[in-house]
Amino acid sequence: MIRVLVVDDHLVVRDGLELLVGRFDGIECVGTAADGAEAMAQASALAPDVVLMDLSMPGMDGVEATRQMTATGGGPAVLVLTTFADRRHVIDAVDAGAVGYLLKDTGPDQLEAGIRAAARGESPLDPKVAGALVAARRERRPDVALTAREREVLLLVGEGMANKNIARRLGISEKTVKTHLTSVFSALGVGDRVHAALWAERHRSELEGPTG
Questions:
Q1: HEC assignment per residue over the chain
Q2: For the segment 166-197, what is each residue's pLDDT rounded down to a tens digit?
Q3: Which pTM does this prediction carry?
């Protein structure tokens, strides 16, 4: 069962999301919060797997709550659900530690898929958001040196695959996948798999080309 905490300052939205999430098979809404401070307290008390995080809230906003919630690692996966698709909000949220970013006009099926993806350690992104991130993180790095295996791992990260699935696909251990990713992050100058995936998307033709 995937445990979800819903964070939004609008009561109608909060209640609607609580009802909607509760209808997804194998997913339950374990609690709600109206601002970042309450979200921190609820996350500590309820230990959710995924937090659906609004960004614009009074007091502690969603970006700061995400930053604090993910600062030590091992906490819930924060999946942003907001109306904002502009570059600044997207970058701020991802840099704070959000694993994914969806917009509130997304459909129920996409929301359910996003929650499941976040719980698996993947990075669900609305297409509009992905475009904003690619534009904001546009970096020309023609001299990045990756081994053939690191390229394979990076390509699969770009497809949204979790470490466990990458290990199974390549016939290696999950620990080895993590080791490769550490090297990849260092080579690309990124700090997480979201930005690595975006780099892979932009440079896919290079990654799929000759490795010699």
A1: CEEEEEECCCHHHHHHHHHHHHCCCCEEEEEEECCHHHHHHHHHHHCCCEEEECCCCCCCCHHHHHHHHHCCCCCCEEEEEECCCCHHHHHHHHHHCCCEEEECCCCHHHHHHHHHHHHCCCCCECHHHHHHHHHHCCCCCCCCCCCHHHHHHHHHHHCCCCHHHHHHHHCCCHHHHHHHHHHHHHHHCCCCHHHHHHHHHHCHHHHHCCCC
A2: 999 999 999 999 989 988 888 887 888 888 88
A3: 0.67
Query: pLDDT by residue (tens digit) across 40-99?
Result: 999 999 999 999 999 999 999 999 999 999 987 778 999 999 999 888 888 889 888 999
Q: Are 75 and 69 in contact (CB under 8 A)?
A: yes
Tokens of 44: 């500590």
Beta bridge mates, 81? 102
Report CA torsion sign: 21, 22, 26, 31. Answer: positive
Lowest mean pLDDT among 105-114, 178-187, 199-208: 199-208
On the 0-12 / 13-18 / 19+ scale of CB atoms within 10 A, 91 is middle
Task: List Cα–Cα distances, 123 to 4, 78, 176, in angstroms.
Answer: 16, 10, 20
- Torsion sign across C-alpha atoms 122, 128, 110, 47: positive
